[in-house]
Amino acid sequence: MLFLKVGGEERWGSGSWLLARPLAFGPRVTGRPRLQSRRRERLGPPGSTPGSAMGSRSSHAALIPDVENIRRETGFSQASLLRLYHRFRALDRSKKGYLSRADLQQIGALAVNPLGDRIIDSFFPDGSQRVDFSGFVRVLAHFRPIDDDTGVRDPKQPEPLNSRTNKLRFAFQLYDLDQDGKISRHEMLQVLRLMVGVQVTEEQLESITDRTVQEADEDGDGAVSFLEFTKSLEKMDIEQKMSIRILK
Amino acid sequence: MWRGESPGPSWGPLLALVLVLTLGGLPRVRGFEEEPGGAHGASQGFQVVTFKWHHVQDPYIIALWILVASLAKIVFHLSHKVTSVVPESALLIVLGLVLGGIVWAADHIASFTLTPTVFFFYLLPPIVLDAGYFMPNRLFFGNLGTILLYAVIGTVWNAATTGLSLYGVFLSGLMGELKIGLLDFLLFGSLIAAVDPVAVLAVFEEVHVNEVLFIIVFGESLLNDAVTVVLYNVFESFVTLGGDEVTGVDCVKGIVSFFVVSLGGTLVGVVFAFLLSLVTRFTKHVRIIEPGFVFVISYLSYLTSEMLSLSAILAITFCGICCQKYVKANISEQSATTVRYTMKMLASGAETIIFMFLGISAVDPLIWTWNTAFVLLTLVFISVYRAIGVVLQTWILNRYRMVQLEPIDQVVMSYGGLRGAVAYALVVLLDENKVKEKNLFVSTTIIVVFFTVIFQGLTIKPLVQWLKVKRSEQREPKLNEKLHGRAFDHILSAIEDISGQIGHNYLRDKWSNFDRKFLSKVLMRRSAQKSRDRILNVFHELNLKDAISYVAEGERRGSLAFIRSPSTDNMVNVDFSTPRPSTVEASVSYLLRENVSAVCLDMQSLEQRRRSIRDTEDMVTHHTLQQYLYKPRQEYKHLYSRHELTPNENEKQDKEIFHRTMRKRLESFKSAKLGINQNKKAAKLYKRERAQKRRNSSIPNGKLPVESPVHNFTIKEKDLELSDPEEAPDYEAETSGGIEFLASVTKDTASDSPAGDTGSDTPLIGHSSPRGGSPAVSQQPPLPARLPRPHAPSPAPPENAAPVPAARSSREPGAGPTQGAGPERRALPGAHARSAAARRVHSRRSFQRPRARRRPALLKLASLQPPGPAELPPHALEQEETPL
């Protein structure tokens, strides 16, 4: 039998942090309100967050500036938006209300991602130096899984950000540095260089580049247009490959 | 320990003992409770050589078994085909069966079985400690809720349903006559219910499932121990009491005991982790036994909680989980390596032995009682109820989880519910007097274990593959698809990182605040506390792992060839690590060597590739891409691996990418902030590089042009610092050697390379300067580009002044690069080419000299604000570098 007494309740103190979380099942959303309100107190009054009511979920989503528009545009659920907003705030270290390149660059894992910097750049279109929450979410929205119930969409509405074409376009603009709508041989080479180990010689890289471009290039202009890009990947399950299921 | 009941003949010659292994005579080697046999009667008078088999018998046998098991592993891995299909655990079980069969055939007695004592006291702790110590904490705590639900509710569910269903079938009479009641069934259910950490790890190791799924199954198997222990104990005591005596109070006590056992075990683990961290904080002067503390104290946590009849597995798991951060920060690099390898070795060895002895133990006719219905139904019930349990719980969990568990995950989780040695040891522990059908339980458990480990272990890999490749078209993907597909993977993982896929930021923030403010202060060495920047941490860890895995390689290739190799990255490296004095320590020198060996590899493979370069068939291209495209994170970031310390390739990859990224960022930073015309500068650099190349025309250049700007300095630096691989261990051996090393690197770099280029590296120093505690990456890091500039030594604070003369005095004037001396500097570019060898000697010499006093200076240097007004004009830079 092992019904023995080991200490009293109060002694669990130092260990209980470990077990304090069992009640929050994994990454969870519903537990946010309480946490959020405390977080806000800690952070002080954030200038960019209207809405003072606390304690309920909706009021928290209301913390996010312009939440309805963002939601309509990106298709994120309120819970996801809230979560992303937390993430946004966490990344924004100096609490300035927007993210700079440096904020994103400090994510350690990105430094070991060969395309990390390009992706960071994609958050800052047209040479801007800051990205606000809606811009942040708009980029992420490309990676939202495609909804199952996309039956008939209003043709007048713009294509959702997470459509196949937009996913592809996102990838395309990572390659297309000069934004001329074509991936030139040079641009392709640059990407390859990023993605291939140093063991591969320059000659090899160039030959690979040539082959890649040739393979996709249909009109023979020595560059890959977006159309050609799409075509070369038509057999690929982009919808699945470019979606993150946590971004619902 | 190993039971030896056979009164076999005694042994004479040692040779026979060796033969025994192959001839199956082992059973006749008896346990130590036996009296020596007749052979010893022959010894009369003084003998020059005495043969004292009994003296060494037990340890000898143990050692031999371990040897056999280890050799078996070698044999298994001779064939890649076999091990890629059949999990090692299954092979070991089969080997055990064969060995047991041989032994039994020779002796008709089963001499060696896995006893609970050996298992619980010696074999299990290393495995669990290993699991805890290398636990990916963030992931684990991110999914703790899920894990706990599966571990607690899931296990109770499995136990109850399996036990009750078996009882139900028993009542229907299908099993025939058995002397068991409901409680026995429940007892059996409780011991068979728990998923076994050893088996799960052994199998999941080889099945590459996604990290969340892995951590859930893995965590569950670890944490369900508390439930198993409690259920087992409760039902065992109930069985002892007899079914009628059990009152409601006992049941309540049972539930209470669950909390006591689990929380108590955890607490014991945490307390010991605290102790361990604290102890390692003060081991600076006893480096040699440092690793020992980790093992001894963790083991004590296990024993302590066993003594208090708490959950020992929980205790040692949490001991490992909690201490890892502090221990890793506190102990020296070498100790950390020792700990890692020893832990892996112990765990892997223990696992090997466990599975082999599971096989051997099964060969004992005495324990076999067959009851077809019981065995088969058990198998069916545990599989079915596990599946049902998983589905039900997942359904609940998915309402709360951000990362949903998809049906495929559920299938894998259900199917991955392997039972193993814990169940076996528990069932062997049963008291035959109380549990009448113990033998039936034992044989059923063995069947279940074998079935799950061998059959499920064999099939889970194909299953996972099959489930994932739902729409597998068998066609060679086009080049574009391959390339872009890989790019998409990278993009995806980057986006995941940006969106912070594993939530819980609030609690984590809270905890890390607490940790930073209090715990780390108490548990970490002061030097270790200073510099903990996120990105640096990532980089640092990469470097460490990297370095460690490459040391061996460097050693093997210990030649001077690398000195000349145009590897690029050292400077970034070195400077980057600079502000992490204590933890980096020797790693920098490791690092350099690492780079070096990679470069060597490069050179060789380069030659080979040159030959075939004309052969640019599609196939080759595909192959190259296949081989050298960087793998996306998901594919390789294996969380926990018992058998492999570090996947070398991936470490290397990470480092390469990291360097590129950093260099690019620095360059763009420079051009943005300093207003230098990048193109112009790049052209200059290019020119210089060409010149350099001409000088070192023998160097095969396998690197990418992107990396060019820094590398000529790197070469010099290597010339200076890493003249000889054999030297490296010397300064590594010094505990505080790393920083001196850094210091000299920085100095040498500073004097060697004019301001403009030093700038490309040094912003990192500024940015990660430990001063000020908050490691925020400022948008405009200070421009330390100018700080080490020799022309302006004056602004250095007084602390800086002291060490420099000290450093200089260790060199002959003029021969080596010196800092802050104008005239000497004039001569430098010329001297560089000519007296490289001389300087090598000097720098090496100065290396080994302890220069502890330079540390503050370096830190100061690192955080110095730029004094001077502007850059040196670019042309100055070029003049300096013109070869004479």
From TrEMBL, chain A:
Protein name: Calcineurin B homologous protein 2
Principal subcellular localization: membrane
Subcellular location: Cell membrane; Cytoplasm; Nucleus
Annotated ranges, domain EF-hand: 163-198, 204-239
Protein's UniProt keywords contain Cytoplasm: yes
Matches recorded under Pfam families: EF-hand_7
Organism per entry: Sciurus carolinensis (Eastern gray squirrel)
GO cellular component: cytoplasm; nucleus; plasma membrane
PANTHER family: EG:114D9.1 PROTEIN-RELATED
Source organism, top-level taxon: Eukaryota
Keyword terms: Calcium, Cell membrane, Cytoplasm, Lipoprotein, Membrane, Metal-binding, Myristate, Nucleus, Phosphoprotein, Protein transport, Repeat, Transport
GO function terms (MF aspect): calcium ion binding
Residue ranges of the region described as Disordered: 30-59
PROSITE patterns (alphabetical): EF_HAND_1, EF_HAND_2
GO terms (BP aspect): protein transport
CDD domains attached to this UniProt entry: EFh
InterPro entries associated with the record: Calcineurin_B_homologous, EF-hand-dom_pair, EF_Hand_1_Ca_BS, EF_hand_dom
Recorded family membership: Belongs to the calcineurin regulatory subunit family. CHP subfamily.
Polar residues: compositionally biased ranges: 49-59
